[in-house]
Amino acid sequence: MILWQKTKQALRERLSESSFNLWIEPLQWSATDDKFIELAAPDRFFCSWVAEHYLADIKHCLCSVSGKDQAVRFTVVSEAAKPQLLPGSEIKEQLRLPNMPPGRSCVKALHPRYTFDEFMVGEANMLAHSASMAMASGDSSLGSCLYIESETGLGKSHLTHSVAHHILDHSPGTRLHFVTAQQLSAEMVRGIMNNSMEQFKEKYHSQCDVLLIEDVHALAGKAKTQTELAETMDVLMESNKLIILTGALAPKDIPDINSGLRSRLSAGLITTINPPDLQTRVLIIRKKAENNKLTLSEDLIYYMAEHLQGDIRKIESAIVGIKAKSGLLRTTPDLDMVKEVVVNIVGRHQELSTEMIRDFLARQFKVSVDDMLSKSRKKSVAFPRQVTMYLARKLTEQPLVEIGKAFNRDHSTVVHSIRVVSENMAANGCVRGQVDLLAKKIEKQFLQ
Q1: Could you give the residue ranges of the DSSP H alpha helices within 67-143?
Q2: Which residues pair with residue 41 across a beta bridge?
Q3: Where are the beta strands (DSSP E) in 169-249?
Q4: Which bin fits 316, alpha (ψ -120 to 50), beta or left (φ > 0)?
């Protein structure tokens, strides 16, 4: 306690009076030993601000007083220790602390699990994730504007929520505005009707450090909102403020938007999130099962990953369904239970595709999908690739061109593979038996 009082006196001489009174004086000594000193602050935002702006000063003065290099950590003071306002002394208006910019964040409710730690990264979303993480961390090397395009349910909202969480946790003084395109449009309409457009412009032009807007494609046909958004983006980009937008369509494909807004939407980095591949779906299922305290065997996880493609919300629905069903029956999930839940989500008769056969056979042959897509001519890779093309032709209605696309090949490669497998089956009974067995496994896995 005496050590902290002496450190505070040194800080009083080192800092300006206003900074000391508002950021150092409220800190309370909490605990200490030879290695660290713990200080309590009013809330986590206060802790974050002091750690970011005054930690070096505190450590310098602490070392000069004690003669030891001690770590400093911050904690939030307990509710019982917080000073209480006397009756009649309520603060009418929130005061703005020094060094804090005017205005405040305007953020819709954030999903507590939509954080970077919970986001499963795969080839389909790697660029979008990396760009979002970099911008949230203050890396300006990618520019100040990011547009994320994807179909519904593939993770673009997860990334925007993650950015908001990260910024508010690490830089609570940042003025962050997070809205959907519909909310922005409705807010602008209210501004026009109430003759308060100056406040609207002030909020988004002068009192905004980070702007996150979801579902920009919803502005199609809304000419006035498009004009206001284009103007806002101009102002923010000139000031190097951060802008992240999402949409179900790429800027060039959004109908009924003016050329000015289309140009601005295309001015920064544009990333696309594609449907997750098999391995990414496996990671997602494992994580969501863990979050729901649901135990699933590897076979069940892979079964779900092979059948629940596209929209990740299908996986969430399946996890909830299996959790509920196993809880009601008081039994561990098995294949029959998982099949029943999955069928209710995707339907009993899903269309078999080359990609489904490819991913399944990659596991059967113990090779990676990347190897199957590569130009490798090793027999351990080429044979599974040829068998997949053969069975895709046999078990699906897809044309040769579509089968080839699943391997980044043209139709002539598919024709060659079918001929090679057919000749090997005719000449070698073992090959014929192996291919027939694989065909039966595929039918059992996907078509029953």
Answers
A1: 126-136
A2: 76
A3: 176-180, 210-214, 242-247
A4: alpha
DSSP state of 439: H
- Written as six digits, the tokens of 173 are 């003084």
**Strand 36-41, strand 28-32: pairing:** antiparallel
The rounded distance, in Å, linking the Cα atoms of 275 and 7 is 56
Q: What is the pLDDT along the chain (448 residues), one digit of tens a residue?
A: 678 888 888 888 888 887 788 888 888 887 777 677 888 888 777 888 788 888 888 888 888 888 888 888 888 876 434 444 444 444 444 444 444 455 555 666 778 888 998 898 888 899 999 999 999 998 888 888 999 999 888 989 999 999 999 998 888 778 899 999 999 999 899 988 888 889 989 898 988 899 999 999 999 989 999 999 999 999 999 988 999 999 999 999 999 899 999 999 998 899 999 888 888 889 999 999 998 899 999 989 988 888 888 888 889 889 999 999 888 888 999 988 988 888 888 765 557 889 889 988 988 998 988 889 998 989 999 999 999 999 998 888 788 888 999 898 988 899 999 999 999 998 888 889 999 999 988 887 776 6
Residue where the block lists tokens 């969430």: 316
User: Could you tell me if 279 and 122 are in contact, meaning their C-beta atoms sit under 8 angstroms apart?
Assistant: yes
Structure-token pair, residue 444: 């059992």
pTM of the model: 0.60
Residue 404: is it exposed, middle or buried by C-beta count within 10 angstroms (0-12/13-18/19+)?
buried
Ordered domains of the chain (ranges, CATH): 2-80 (3.30.300.180), 106-273 (3.40.50.300), 278-346 (1.10.8), 354-447 (1.10.1750.10)
Q: Would you say 62 and 71 are in contact if contact means Cβ atoms under 8 Å apart?
A: no
Q: Answer yes or no: are the C-beta atoms of 239 and 253 closer than 8 Å.
A: no
Q: Fill in the DSSP letter of residue 204.
A: I
List, in order, residues 6 or more apart from 261 with CB less than 8 Å away: 219, 226, 227, 229, 230
Q: At what angle do helices 278-291 and 313-329 cross, to 10 degrees?
A: 40
